[in-house]
Amino acid sequence: xxxxxQLLEKIxxxxxxxxxxxxxxxxxxxxxxITAGCLFLCxxxxxxxxxxxxxxxxxxxxxxxxxxxxxxxxxxEGVTVIRVEDTRYAMAYISAAWFGNPAKRMKxxxxxxxxxxxxxxxxxxxxxxxxxxxVGLIGTIEVIIGERRIHAVNTTPxxxxxxxxxxxxxxxxxxxxxxxxxxxxxxxHRTQGFMFDFGIFTNIEPDHIGPNEHADFEEYLMCKGLLFxxxxxxxxxxxxxxxxxxxxxxxxxxxxxxxxxxxxxxAENLRLVKKPGELGALFDVKGLMDFTVEVTTxxxxxxxxxxxxxxxxxxxxxxxxxxxxxxxxxxxKGRIEMVKVSDAFTLMIDYAHNAMSLESLxxxxxxxxxxxxxxxxGCGGNRSKLRRxxxxxxxxxxxxxxxxxxDNPRFEEPQDIIEDIKVGIGKTGGEFVEICDRKExxxxxxxxxxxGDIIVLAGKGHEDYQxxxxxxxxxxxxxxxxxxxxxxxWKEDLQTL
Length: 497
What we know:
Layout: E1 2-3, H1 4-7, E2 14-17, E3 23-24, E4 26-28, E5 38-41, H2 54-59, E6 64-67, E7 80-83, H3 87-98, E8 107-112, H4 117-130, E9 135-138, E10 142-145, E11 148-151, H5 159-171, E12 176-180, H6 183-187, E13 196-201, H7 217-225, E14 231-237, H8 243-246, E15 253-258, E16 265-275, E17 278-287, E18 291-295, H9 300-313, H10 320-329, E19 337-338, E20 346-350, H11 355-366, E21 373-377, H12 385-398, E22 401-404, H13 414-426, E23 432-434, H14 438-447, E24 454-458, E25 465-468, E26 471-474, H15 477-487
Parallel strand pairs: 4-5, 5-6, 6-7, 8-12, 8-13, 9-12, 13-14, 14-15, 15-16, 20-24, 21-22, 21-24, 22-23
Antiparallel strand pairs: 1-3, 2-7, 9-10, 10-11, 16-17, 17-18, 19-20, 25-26
Helix pairs in contact: 3-5, 4-9, 4-10, 11-12, 12-13
């Protein structure tokens, strides 16, 4: 139970009806979850508007309504109606107050950017835990609270759920939280109600532009920049051409990182590392710190992820040896995830699921001069055909062999999607094979792997299902690989997969 005045303390509001001197027994933003004596937030969403359910909420027992629009007052006798400019903004502050402002009990790290958020959150978590911290994580793949792992629906949860997670993390004894902060999360005020101790910008490229996302790249850029008005220390990638626009209007202290000679924390002397069945990178850290680091994932973008993590963990006083150790041990599911099946060739799983991410990945891997670069992927059904053409063209251009297979066909026929992908490959004259069944396709890739090959299983990444005709069937590529190896008489421990 909380006093209404306490919940409204940090926001501007007008009391339209009823008393303010009341207590509420809960905070709810979904009309299906109304409880007696609760405060109901009328949220206008993409598919439904909570204002339309105001009377229903009252009939179910809601004691207080928070609105941003006029609502019919008939049947509202004895109910307190609070008017605010933006109910999503209000929800963030009300939720924070409801849970006792848990962010104040921990150091909060927010990471935004088009690429690198997920990997970097896990790197930071690993490094800080190696240094003795207890760290909560909120991200695209999952939420981690102690030993609990909760499947993530949104990269950045709705503000009420975010505050609930923060409260549970504080109660669990976490002293730090690292979270991915999406542009949508910032746009929809999910991260309001508290101050980030550290806000991080990795990079930005055109993405998430369209209906129910961002109107254009400028809006996308602006939303990313909001983080630097909600944090105490901003840590930004100086190499990104848009970094000055991202930090425009910032209210925080700014630090920079990158390869740029003017960056506060720099990566120098990059060396590519090739080992049997493995790829990595070695580089020198200069500026605010001075030591050498090896990462077990390939390419320049892996260096950026590592440098970002170092820039954050420096503020926690983490020793260099603990940083080095963490980089050698951490593995992020579905993000350039190496799967050791042979010393002869390299196999990896990655979430690259659009042309931009696939081109970046394949371009990076070509720098390792493989015997052949083999790319296995499919495309999702009931999505833009343009993505299929583009991904087919990228793979046809950069890979020596493309294995076209099924991803999440949803309500489309898998073969129809494959035919669209082939249109893109056809523009390049690239070599390809088509194998609709994903397990059979992976088996083909493994069986035909040649010494020095790099084989990429792209598109599924961390996903552990395949969606067909509206049903999600269990399918984890690691399990598929494990089954394939067993069928071929593999005798080694497969639990590492």
